[in-house]
Amino acid sequence: MKTKCKLYILAIFCFCIPNLEAQTILRSTIGSIGSSENNGGMVIQQTAGQPAVVGNQKAENLGLRQGFVQPMYFEEEQNELNVLLYPNPNRGEFSFTVNENSEEQIYFLLFDQQGKILVESETLPNQLTPISIENPSPGMYHLKVISGKRFSSFKIIVNH
Questions:
Q1: Structurally, how many domains does the chain consist of?
Q2: Do residues 50 and 68 touch, judged by C-beta distance below 8 A?
Q3: Is 102 helix (H, G, I), strand (E, B) or coil?
Q4: What is the Rg, in whole angstroms, of the alpha carbon atoms belonging to the chain?
Q5: For residue 73, how many other CB atoms are within 10 A of its CB?
């Protein structure tokens, strides 16, 4: 009987334990808003609402956040071009003017939180430029104003 019991234990040890698998890491996106893109083997993922960032790297026009999957990288607010923006917060309609003595063309882009360009256009210095977001959702938008190598960037709050 002892020999039979030892054989069962040996059989369980030999056939069951080696078949156990270690944990595997899966690529996934957890959040209420997110997406994944695969472009030529490079996977780009984004979500909104994750709590922390492990690292942050930036080159000229490219930003990368490591650790948690994050929305697109946006510059912190800065105002190199002396832009006046009002009202903020708003209901999807606001205006800005660039107080410059230059004749350079001013380019501007308005992004939603996922990095989608909603408005892309040009204006002139010292000219009031109205912007209206079509069917705006409450939340944060990003405005980037560019002239030559200088730029200004702002967080636009839309509420109802």
A1: 2
A2: yes
A3: coil
A4: 26
A5: 14
Contacts of 39 (CB under 8 A, 6+ apart): none
Does residue 52 fall inside a structural domain? yes
Residue pair 102/124 in contact by the 8 Å Cβ criterion: no
Per-residue pLDDT of the chain (160 residues; tens, 9 = 90+): 667 767 667 666 666 555 555 566 655 545 445 566 666 666 666 555 554 445 566 666 555 555 544 444 555 678 889 899 999 899 999 999 999 888 888 999 999 888 889 999 999 999 999 999 988 999 899 999 999 888 899 999 998 7
Phi, psi of 89 (to 5 degrees): -70, 165
- 138: Cβ contacts below 8 Å, ≥ 6 apart: 158, 159, 160
Whichever domain contains 115, its CATH number is 2.60.40.1930
Residues 83 and 59 in one domain: no
Query: Looking at 41, 66, 91, which one is the last position of a domain?
Result: 66
